[in-house]
Design a protein that fits this description.
With 377 residues, this protein is mainly beta. Among the domains are: 94 residues, no CATH class; 110 residues. 3% of the residues lie in helices and 48% in strands. The strands form 10 sheets. A 4-stranded antiparallel β-sheet has the order 4-5-6-7, with no helix packed on it. A 4-stranded antiparallel β-sheet has the order 8-9-10-11, with no helix packed on it.
């Protein structure tokens, strides 16, 4: 049974009160709240570690569009507002957070969508779904991919094969990657082809470019469909901050948007630029370089796991040592020592850190100075 403090308010408000409330919300936008744990029970705090919603839930997720999904009774999920009141009472076996006014819900083994009132807007009829992005949502029916609009209309009926990478599923900048068999291309929100189905491998658009592979040659196409003249004999990556990772002769380097090599291939592995830096593996060890190719963080054995190297966010990057995670600055110094089982990148000066297994996870937060805002409990 749900405690009374989590029930929806039943008092009918007058029009004046509603207007005043709306004005107050406009002048004072909702504060950011963060999920916390206390002896295995979940609640929410603000940026100052002040507990705003007392730990009372079995599980809780981040707020999105003013609502957070929570599990109260070990069975069903619902949604609360920033006061901790249930806006949508727990009645779904699984849910995901709101995006563009819709949230996905699982009912009798099928996925559909609800609105912010909890009303089913798009009946559960799909095997898999994703969140809305740019007014379209990826849906899967009978093994084929299509796209629906916010009203549930199948603007692009299911007809495509599942992409190889999940990050390619959503519309970005008016385009989405689709696949039929071994051929890939791009379509617009109405299903019209912008890039025809003619590529063996194709990456998502990034900064106006998409990487492509034809046979053993790798290169890039521009959004307008034109091909970049430069071609390479190894795998390439997306453009980030005007530079893209390329491979030649088994080593990685970087090109600019004209296709000119600006950092010669010299690294066994390499990442994508963020905040003017990227990780690289040199002679078996991992370090960081700047946009000129200069090693600003010398390759060190302690950062040897390239798969765990993070992009810089707000001056710090995720790093690992001995199987545990922490954060390093742009000089390679540990700002937050390796001590956590999981961490997330910094956002607005705060990063989430976790200790323990999923069933007994303890959640905490650190700031950019490497100090605890809240210790994992």
């Amino acid at each position: 049974m749900i405690p009374q403090r989590h029930t929806l308010p039943r008092i009918a408000l007058c029009g004046l009160c509603i207007a005043l409330s709306a004005q107050a919300q406009t002048e004072n936008p909702p504060q950011t709240l963060y999920p916390i744990t206390e002896q295995g029970v979940w609640g929410f705090m603000d940026r100052t570690e002040q507990v705003v919603i007392e730990p009372d839930f079995r599980l809780a997720r981040d707020f999105s569009e003013g609502l957070a999904s929570v599990q109260y009774d070990r069975v069903d999920w619902g949604f609360i507002d920033t006061r901790g009141e249930f806006v949508i009472k727990p009645r779904f076996k699984e849910v995901r957070n709101f995006s563009e006014g819709r949230a996905t819900v699982l009912v009798d083994g099928k996925w559909g969508y609800i609105d912010r009132k909890g009303e089913v807007i798009i009946p559960p009829s799909y095997e898999r779904v994703r969140d809305f992005s740019e007014g379209r949502a990826w849906v899967l029916r009978e093994g084929k991919v299509g796209y629906i609009d916010l009203a549930g209309k199948e603007v692009i009926p299911p007809q495509f094969d599942v992409p190889f990478e999940r990050e390619q599923d959503d519309f970005k900048n008016g385009l989405v990657l689709v696949r039929k068999g071994t051929q890939m291309g791009f379509i617009d929100p109405y299903g019209r082809f912008v890039f025809p189905l003619e590529f063996e491998a194709l990456g998502a658009l990034s900064e106006g470019f998409a990487w492509v592979r034809s046979g053993r040659e790798w290169g890039y196409v521009i959004r307008e469909g034109k091909r970049m003249a430069a071609k390479f004999d190894g795998q390439v990556g997306p453009f980030r901050e005007g530079l893209a990772r390329i491979s030649s002769g088994g080593l990685c380097g970087y090109i600019d948007t004209t296709g000119t090599i600006v950092i010669p291939p010299a690294f066994e592995e390499a990442g994508n630029f963020s905040e003017g830096h990227t990780w690289v593996v040199f002679k078996g060890f991992l370090g960081y370089i700047d946009r000129t190719g200069k090693q600003v963080v010398k390759a060190k054995q302690e950062f040897i796991n390239a798969q765990s190297a993070g992009e810089f966010r707000e001056g710090l990057a995720i790093a690992t040592q001995g199987g545990l995670f922490g954060f390093v600055d742009k000089k390679g110094n540990w700002k937050v020592g390796p001590q956590f089982d999981r961490v997330t990148p910094f956002k607005d000066g705060i990063a989430r850190v976790e200790k323990g297994a999923r069933a007994n996870v303890k959640v905490g937060y650190v700031n950019l100075k490497g100090k605890y805002i809240r210790k994992p409990k």
